[in-house]
Design brief:
heterodimer, A: 617 residues, alpha+beta, Aldehyde Ferredoxin Oxidoreductase,  A, domain 1, Aldehyde Ferredoxin Oxidoreductase Protein, subunit A, domain 2, Aldehyde Ferredoxin Oxidoreductase Protein, subunit A, domain 3, 6-stranded mixed β-sheet, 17 strands, 13% strand, B: 162 residues, Alpha-Beta Plaits, 2 domains, two-stranded antiparallel ribbon, 31% helix, globular
Chain lengths: 617, 162
């Protein structure tokens, strides 16, 4: 096989033993790589009903077929997959940078970390040599410090490292895994899974070639993509970056503000992409092999957080800014920096601070609970302090580190009304009360509240759909994007590049064939997307998920948008949600309870998983 | 062509470089038909995320690497300034690597002899492919000319506006 390394590495942390298994071509073609391959390995390597933080939950690391080639944005992505400690369902979190390319060069398509090390370790993958190294001296250190220390002690400055911070060590359910200092496999709490294994870091050095099947034609296609990446499809990412969304969402009444109390933020200008780029962005840098660099590195020029540096994207900026009513960019940058330092998902972290502020404003939390913090919406410095407490699991931060759903249960007193999550995963920066195509995508997303599993917001925001009213048949649009996004995350190309595949699946199928030499048609690739979407659904069903888990946050379903905006009065009723779900399940070929039928399972070549739906259809 | 215009080398502008490493992949493919940065004659350095710069042979005058080789395996082209490695003579001892202040000489991972940028015979592929146009194939004299012009431009910024 080309593109693929053809090998899966199994590391048993309990015994210290490692083993290599072949990646068979059929498996590669059916599940592609990235999240597809990861979820297949998850379902094959776990029993139902395991505790996500037990040694029985494997942490699966995958690359894609393009990793380690010059494929722009495709050469550099990796995914972590496991059972989520936040949702108890399938978890996937991807990250880009330089780590995946190195892992591919070391000769692996996937690594399965099993069991639990007796003492803290890091795994050192040096081509074919795999060793468990003592990590005692790394405990408590940030991922950024860990990277520097490991490079120094192993004596190679091009080693790539993925690491957890203190939060992962302390099993915070919002802990993430950071690579290349600023890049996070953020969502679903996979840093806690890594921490539960006493696995502090993964260090990789790979020296092998990554061969592609048709190198000359591949390079020609890469050249075409380079040209397209200079054009309109990527201009947003190349200029203002994703923070451009702030003013767009604000003007549409779709910028969740003060924990979904409002959908318009009066301080939006001061946290806009325009403001950020003019005053804070020092440099835009790239991941490995990328021709459309997007990573906006911001530095605080003055004030209490002077010289703090962080990479700023819309989602963390939204979560720690408008969502907390905070309009101070310096504090937002400081908070993002702390999230990276402690290794927590900045989206979930900001969401939870907003939740705590909402509870405080409603008297559910008082200064006795907050350790004296005055957690009114908009208190920027208090927001920063609370992030610190969450990162260290101190005081109230210890409870909040459990994720918004569990924190609300622990706090009680009706706090769950203010906990904006789906399936236990915290909400992201789209006010779906007035984005109804997106709302369906959020409700059915297998990993919980997420814009990145479907991208359906684009239909609403661009006006391609009536965002205030959902009509029969619209689910088809959501399904199409879901399956495309699933393939994007399985090939692992960057979603920011999605606009340059002008012919969608046709372009991606050609790309795949040029690299791997495996002939696939656009339809076969789309089918693989559908297969993987169904696979994730089957995993969740196996873990006990039902239609009830395809829900929306309570606030989205009870509190109409109050602001004087085009979206005023919008929210989503149970009746509307049921209408959407019925339509979606029907178009998916699932039962009214959201279970894939045997026909569908057979059609997708997932017969071996028929046992999952037994007694449920 | 005069000497100062002949000796062009690959120079990277760190203000433009984003550290993507496309140059490394293109170089290894052009020279070795492999996607592997370890086989690239140009290498990217990233410091603290914001500082990015690709480094390759600078065609030193009186190149110290040539002087350092005890086996006369390296010589410098008088015309282009490129360092030419005699792979039969090189035994991979690495004295030239130590002599190079820029880390522009590497030991080949398979062949175990040193390898150095040869400017693709005056048509460097890395420059052609650099997505940010951060790389240029240029002589030191022209680099100086450019710096001079931009310094004067800066000095007379206000005057130039009118």
């Amino acid at each position: 096989m080309f593109g693929y390394a053809g090998r899966i590495l199994r590391v048993n942390l309990s015994t210290g033993k490692t083993a290599i298994e072949p990646l068979k071509e059929e498996m590669a073609k059916k599940y592609i790589g990235g999240i597809g391959l990861g979820i297949r390995l998850l379902i094959d390597n776990t029993k139902p009903g395991i505790d996500p933080l037990s040694p029985e939950n494997p942490l699966i690391l995958t690359t894609g077929p393009f990793s380690g080639t010059v494929a722009p944005t495709g050469g550099n992505g990796h995914a972590f997959v496991a059972k989520s400690p936040l949702t108890n369902g399938a978890a996937e979190a991807k990250s880009h940078g330089f780590f995946a390319a190195e892992l591919k060069r070391a000769g692996y398509d996937a690594v399965i970390f099993e069991g639990k090390a007796e003492k803290p370790v890091y795994v050192w993958i040096d081509d074919d040599s795999v060793q468990l190294m003592d990590a005692k001296h790394l405990m408590g250190k940030s991922p950024q410090e860990v990277e520097d220390i490991i490079r120094e002690e192993l004596g190679d400055y091009y080693i790539r490292v993925a690491s957890i911070g203190l939060a992962g060590e302390k099993l915070s359910r919002i802990a993430c895994i950071i690579n290349d200092k600023t890049r996070a496999a953020g969502r679903c709490g996979l840093g806690a899974v890594m921490g539960s294994k006493n696995l502090k870091a993964i260090a990789v050095r790979g020296t092998k070639n990554v061969d592609v099947a048709k190198p000359e034609e591949f390079l020609e296609f890469v050249r075409v993509l380079h040209e397209r990446m200079k054009g309109p499809a990527t201009v947003k990412y190349r200029t203002l970056g994703t923070p451009q969304n702030v003013l767009v969402h604000n003007s549409l009444g779709a910028l969740p503000t003060r924990n979904f109390t409002n959908a318009v933020f009066e301080g939006a200008e001061k946290v806009s992409g325009e403001y950020l780029n003019e005053r804070f962005v020092e440099k835009i840098v790239a991941c490995s092999s990328c021709a459309m660099r997007c990573e906006h590195i911001a530095v605080v020029p003055e004030g209490p957080y002077k010289e703090v540096m962080a990479r700023v994207e819309y989602e963390p900026l939204w979560a720690l800014g408008p969502h907390c009513g905070v309009d101070r960019m310096d504090a937002i940058i400081k908070a993002i920096h702390l999230c990276n330092y402690y290794g927590i998902d900045a989206i979930s972290a900001g969401n939870i601070v907003g939740f705590a502020m909402d509870c405080y404003e409603h008297g559910i939390l008082t200064k006795d609970d907050t350790g004296g913090l005055d957690l009114k919406f908009g208190n920027a410095d208090e927001m920063v302090k609370l992030i610190e407490m969450m990162g260290r699991r101190e005081g109230l931060g210890d409870i909040l580190a459990e994720g918004v759903k569990r924190a609300a249960e622990i706090i009680g007193k009706g706090a769950e009304k203010y906990a904006n999550h789906i399936k236990g995963l915290e909400m992201t920066g789209y006010d779906i009360r007035g984005l109804k195509t997106a709302a369906l995508g959020y409700a059915v997303s297998f990993r919980g509240a997420d814009h990145n599993r479907h991208g359906a917001y684009a239909l609403d925001i661009s006006g391609k759909t009536n965002r205030f009213k959902f009509e029969k048949g619209r689910s088809k649009l959501v399904i199409d994007i879901e399956d495309l996004y699933t393939i994007i995350d399985s090939l692992i190309v960057c979603k920011f590049s999605r606009g340059v595949y002008y012919k969608g699946f046709d372009d991606l199928a050609r790309y795949y064939t040029l690299v791997t030499g495996i002939d696939v048609t656009a339809e076969e690739l789309r089918k693989a997307g559908e297969r993987i979407s169904n696979l994730a659904r089957l995993y969740n069903i196996r873990e006990g998920f039902t239609r009830k888990d395809d829900h929306l946050p309570i606030k989205v379903m009870t509190t109409p948008i109050p602001d004087e905006t085009v979206a005023k009065g919008q929210y989503i009723t149970q009746e509307e949600l049921d209408f959407m779900l019925d339509d979606y399940y029907e178009h998916r070929g699932w039962t009214r309870e959201g279970v894939p039928t045997l026909e569908k399972i057979k059609e997708l070549g997932l017969e071996d998983l028929a046992y999952v739906v037994e007694g449920k259809i | 062509m005069s000497h100062i215009h002949a000796r062009k080398f690959v120079s990277d502008d760190p203000d433009k470089c984003v550290g993507c490493g496309v140059c490394e992949y293109i170089c290894s493919f052009e020279k070795e038909k492999a996607f592997n940065p370890l086989k690239s004659r140009i290498r990217v350095v990233r410091l603290g995320t914001t500082i990015n710069m690709a480094v390759t042979c600078r065609l030193c005058e009186d190149a110290p690497c040539v002087a350092a080789c005890p086996r006369d395996a390296l010589r410098q082209s008088e015309e282009t300034g490129v360092i030419i490695v005699d792979e039969d003579k090189c035994n991979g001892c690495g004295w030239c690597i130590e002599a190079c202040d820029y880390g522009a000489i590497m030991l080949h991972p398979d062949k175990k002899v040193v390898f150095i940028c040869d400017t693709c015979d005056g048509n460097p592929k890395c420059v052609e492919w650099c997505p940010e146009e951060a790389l240029s194939f240029i002589t030191k004299d022209v680099l100086a000319q450019k710096s001079r012009i931009s310094a004067v431009k800066k000095l007379f910024y206000e005057a130039l506006k009118t």
